[in-house]
From TrEMBL, chain A:
Keywords: Coiled coil
Organism domain of life: Bacteria
InterPro entries hit by this protein: DUF1657
Coiled coil: 34-61
Protein name as catalogued: Conserved domain protein
From TrEMBL, chain B:
Keyword line: Cell membrane, Membrane, Transmembrane, Transmembrane helix
Membrane topology: Multi-pass membrane protein
Pfam family, one: DUF1657
Keyword DNA repair: no
Species in which this protein is naturally found: Heliobacterium modesticaldum (strain ATCC 51547 / Ice1)
Protein name: YetF C-terminal domain-containing protein
Species classification: Bacteria, Bacillati, Bacillota, Clostridia, Eubacteriales
Record GO cellular component, one term: plasma membrane
Amino acid sequence: MTVSGQVKQTLASLKGARSTLESFAAVEENVEAKRAYTENLQRLDRVIDGIEKRLQVLEYEEPQYKGL
Amino acid sequence: MPEWTIAFIRATAVYLLVFAGARWLGKRQLAQLTLFDRITVVAIGVVAGALSLNLAGSLASALPPLVVWIGFPIALFYLSIKFKTVRDLVQGKETVLINHGKVLDDKLLEIPMSAEDLLSQLRRKKVFNFADVEFAMLEPDGELSVFLKKDKRPVTASTLELKVGHESVPQTVIMDGIMMDEPLTAMGLNRRWLHEELEKIGVAPENVFLAQVDSVGQLYVDLFDDAVHLPQPKTKELLFVNLKKAQADCELYALATKDPSAKQMYTEAAGLIAEMVVDLAPLLKR
């Protein structure tokens, strides 16, 4: 698998984790647990953001794999 | 009136009277009854039995004892709530039997209780070595309460200095195949959500015996058909594993790439995910 393919896979699993975390944060009633979920959601957003930007660079460098 | 009708009416009246008296006597657990409470219960039973069998002569002469046996305990009960001295008199006082790891033999004699009795009571509390006990107290109802020495106490999360996540009580949303609306709304969910969740695991609602929702909205289901094996949700565990894998991936990319800015981004990402793993472990794993 190409580098961009691997990075895309990681990104996909991180996005999956993000949606699970989001649903936990929505249902959880305990204030402390809810805060922990939301805080980590923000951290995850930063990670996803960074990887997405990197992916754009990778696709620019390896245009033949774009969109895979 | 035939004799059996009178007996019938009599027994019914006594039954209702004792029932009302028992309700009034209160909700104290049977296990918490002191010796005197037990005597009262037996006495009420005997009087009620004698009364309904007409062994006690006329109803008029037999009712007062019943009233006394029901009324006095109630009066004493309210007095004992108000006054500590009455309470000690009626309910008895607790006795310290082991203090600072030493058996107080003069207290044992006072009760009276033999050393065998003490050891057998301790064994019932799963203590086979009296030296493990820091403090033991005989409650008024005859039960021994045992406080173990610190190093003999069961391990808890706080002794291990583990951080554990808060977990609220799961709500039972299906019981005996019937959907419970009240617990569902308490969780902020509704029947449609339940139908959707059941559809996801491929189960018809009428086949569900029990279903519970935990604090993050995961559904645990038990079916009427015990031959069907249904996997329990692993969403929390999966999320945790996914995060750890992503962290490892980012570390790998950081090593593999030659671009310095990308290297920095991946290292930062791996660090962030590592923080998340530490932060979420109490909630997702334990």
